[in-house]
Amino acid sequence: MAKIDLDKMLVKIKNTQWALSDIDWDAPGADLVTAEQWPQLKEFMADLMWIEHVGARAFAAMAKKAPTDTLREIYTYFHAEEQRHANAEMALMKRWGMLDGDELPEPNINLRLVIEWLDRYSDEMPVYVLGTVVPMLEIALDGALCKFLLDTVDDPVCHQAFEKINDDESRHLGVGFTVMEMQGHGATYIKMVEMAAQLMDPRLILGIASYFPLLNKMRDNVVAMGLSEEKLYACMRKFEKIGGRTEDGRRNVWFQIIKFHSRWVVDRNNRFYHAPVDAVVKLTGYIPRRVLPAVPSWVKELTYKPTA
Amino acid sequence: MTNATTSRKGTAKAATTSAKRASNVKPATVLIVGAGFAGLGTAIRLQQAGIRNIVILERASAVGGTWRDNSYPGAACDIPSNLYSYSFDPNPDWSRSFSGSAEILSYIEAMVERFGLQQYIRFNQNVTDLSYDDDHGLWHASTEGGASFSGRVAVMAQGPLSNPGFPAIPGIEDFKGKTVHSAAWDHDYDFRGKRVGVIGTGASAIQIIPELAKQAGKLTVFQRTPAWVMPRPDFETPDWQKTLFRKVPASQSALRKGLYLAHESMALAVIWQSPVTRLAERLGRWHLRRQVKDRWLRRQLTPDYRIGCKRILVSNDYYPALQQPNSKLITWPIARISENGVRTVEGIEHQFDAIVYATGFEVSHSGTPFPVRGSAGRLLADDWARGAQAYKSINVAGYPNLFLTFGPNSGPGHNSALVYMESQIDYIVKGVKTILKRNLKALAVKDRAQDEYNAGIQKRLARTNWNSGCKSWYLTEDGFNATMYPGFATQYANQMSELELRDYTLITA
């Protein structure tokens, strides 16, 4: 993957827009989802949809902090595109009869905590912290989950939708890795000091505290659905490979941190990491919904309807 | 280069033809293009100076310019009426502190009546060419209907913002529903109960939106960049004030002076970055927080550029209108316009019966609304190709006896445009009087004077908020500011108070 010209990328993004109405959501094939797939697929789709939506909110925060006008506009588009993915996935759920009327599927508690954190603190985070975490989430969760979905579900409409989604995602990743390299370009020592200061930020610590259990929770959900854990980890290793392909990329301190973290995640034998994080997943499961504040209004913007 | 030479030759030929065509028409002393505030104000002051051989060419069939065209619901001025009116024609009867467009238009119409300006105006004369004839020292105007007019002096008062501008969105021609532009409102279209989309959230949009929210069944507002919106101290004028102004005119002048000084002080917030800028931003954020309780909506409406960089808006009812049950703000980028509505990047097609474009005006930083040919047929659009420039915003080297109102770098960001206009008009009167008194064929500003003036202006502009990094219609694509005046209105008035003859070449007839 060569380094990307961001100005050309912005033009390409603008020229490759699609809308929900480009897809015939009532086309035949919905019955190809089997009865035994259905309950697990419902859970899976709800999680996937929420991950897209969380990614969307992260891009919104990045747009605010983007160092150049071009990158700001790109992130503004990516924010909307992630929302489009969530909308399209919700439309698939509607097609498969997985929505309770017009109701949004409930996010799991770990996602709920991440949403809360994003809403409160993401706008304050340095753009490069999110700029490194988001490609990780996209490549690991989005990438792995989408691939798994296409291997499992035969509905042609699902394939049609994900073809479009994957095209978008490849552009998101291309930009993501280019930005990571941009950040790595420069004196490492200064970056180390800056990063240490950022790590002390309690808001970031809170973010980490909600991000770690989310990964483990998702891993558990995916494994429960029948995806081999190894496939998920292969995707995470891809992050390490692409992110570290250049000197600049490797010099990005955030890349190094997230790389090491992903190594812990994929190493099931690392009890130092997994025992406490799994415990947190379990604990968060006991948080009663009513103690959480009302969901922010951006969460309610999701829709499965192609027209408004 | 060859093309430019050919074009020069061509334009010179056109100028000669035009000169021949107009040679039989008796020239006016002053030929004014446009019967809006600027053109009419110029005519009044010329008349008061004893110059009555005036012709005003107006492209429409009525006076009023921008206030005739901008009649959309809610149209009003952002500057208090007592300051947005001519000091030489005060109106004690303004009904509100910030009057609506209809009342401002009535004021203009009454002005025409009061000063007997009808005799000068030629309606339905859309100028297509304005050319200078070096031999006779005359300006010749050709109009759409084939008529020709001449004058010793020409005043371009056609207004900087007079042609509706549409955004460059793909598919804009595809929409099958009703399309309306804020500057060409269709009063026959009934918005009641309709699904209406508004594109734009600038000065016109924030006035239209509260009115449309009252009528439309569903109102969707598409925003690209949120603006700074300040509270608007708008109130009905009490009767006692009108009586006082009528009986003691000095009291109205005093209020005008007070408003003027209050606006002058705003320059400190708007034009340059100062502690007052932060204070103004705080006021803007307070206004938003007070009117919008939802955190996400507030985030969507919070500007991400320094206050003053773009035009500051004032409204008390814009934020509440966006929160009406039938209204919705969309901040997703627009992907394209389709047959049925607007497709945004989140994949949804927002379907409408009508789309309202509140997207302002065509702004030309380099061109001119019609070809203007100066000495030896040179074309103003060529001279301005890299950004418009003038001497003190009013004269251009190579274009003798031509005066501009609202010329390059005369725009205020903090005070009434009419205050600036009065300075320009008085300068024009001085110029015309000089030409007549000295019987000049040409009063031509020197290149050097214009260059020195502009070097100074651009140096000062570099330190202003307008040039601080945001994109606005004040700047060209290359970031050149040919629009705004970097200083107080008082500074502008001072620079315009003297016609410095050493900066001009005087050619006697």
UniProtKB/TrEMBL annotation, chain A:
CDD domains: Ferritin_like (cd00657). It comes from the Bacteria. This is Reductase.
TrEMBL record, chain B:
The keyword Oxidoreductase applies. It holds the Pfam family FMO-like. Keywords: FAD, Flavoprotein, Oxidoreductase. Gene3D superfamilies: FAD/NAD(P)-binding domain (3.50.50.60). GO terms for molecular function: flavin adenine dinucleotide binding; N,N-dimethylaniline monooxygenase activity; NADP binding. The keyword DNA-binding does not apply. This is Predicted flavoprotein CzcO associated with the cation diffusion facilitator CzcD.
